[in-house]
Amino acid sequence: MTKKQVYWGVFLITMGGLLLINSFGWLNCDFGLFLRLWPMFFIFWGLSLLKLPDIFRKILSALSAIFLALLIIAIITGGWSYSKHHIFHWHQNENCNIETTHKLLNDFKEPFDSAIKSGNITLDFGAGNLTIGDTTSYLFSGSGTMVQLNMNISSDSAKQADVSLSSPNENKAIHSLKFNNTLHLSLNNQLPWNLEANIGAAEARMNLTKYNIPKVSIDCGACDLELQLGDIANDQEITIECGASDIKIIIPETSGCRVTSNSGLSSESFEGFTEKREYHETDNYSAATKKININLSGGVSSFKIQKAKKI
């Protein structure tokens, strides 16, 4: 048996075993630890390439495969935002602002200020149940499981609200593939919002039909996502990157839509689209006054796009 056969055999057995164990709810492990120990993968790999006795090289190759499988599981469960922080210790620089709010709570709401003309909202949600949909007379409101809230208000004359909400397992180590965390969010529909979501192993339902959201960016691991888009914004840019997820997107019937996909081994179903050389698009894309551009990137996922049904 060659070293290459040992490597891929052990890797596939480990990945399959972890996913099978988790399907029965028996997996309970601090996967965040493997994110912090990620350089060990390269150490095992490098040692396996040295001129050592064949048996030791195969053992090191097997250890490297096991560690890679655990690292992939950790990234899938934590989401890219959580993972990049622990792997690379990346931090975003904060812009100057005149007001900063930092809270940890179960229910939250922020009074609406007519001076605020636009908003950016960032969601870091590791695992559990995430919903967005209802409108509110507040700037935003909602409830969840010990949600961490940060808010910055810019000092410009046309103020911009930068809001971030994160679930507990984005603030702490990931312990399991299954959580009971919740986050339910409502936004004010009197101003435009840009939405960024970093999601781990979660069930997410985002009904954005009542909002003016020109830009949506979603990065998810093992997520069951349903995203429903509206036609309030004239142009919408939707970007979704995922690992092993089930993605369903519902678009308005009157909007023109173009899909660019780089989805690897993923399955795709684009209802009512015509395939072109580099993209898929609806027949009304060129003539439509309101357009949606969707960019998809995934490993082993399922992408489905369909038009909203007439009421």
- What count of structural domains? 2
As a percent range, the share of helical residues equals 10-25%
| Major sheet | 16 strands, mixed
Residue-averaged pLDDT: 80
Strand content: 35-45%
Individual helix count:
5
Principal-axes geometry comes out as globular
Secondary structure category? alpha/beta
* Rg computed from alpha carbons, rounded to a whole number of angstroms: 22 Å
Total beta-strand segments: 16
The H/E string reads HHHHEEEEHEEEEEEEEEEEE
Tell me the distance between the termini: 61 Å
Residue runs with pLDDT of under 50 for 5 or more positions: 88-102, 170-178
Structure in a nutshell:
With 311 residues, the chain is of the alpha/beta class. 24% of the residues lie in helices and 42% in strands.
Question: What would your notes on this structure say?
Answer:
The protein has 311 residues and is of the alpha/beta class. The protein has two domains: 3-88, no CATH class; 99-307. It has five helices and 16 strands. It has helices at residues 3-23, 32-36, 39-49, 54-88, 168-171, and strands at residues 99-110, 116-135, 140-153, 159-166, 182-187, 193-207, 215-220, 224-228, 235-242, 246-251, 256-262, 267-270, 273-275, 280-282, 291-298, 302-307. The protein has a 16-stranded mixed sheet that branches. Residues 88-102 and 170-178 have low confidence and may be disordered.
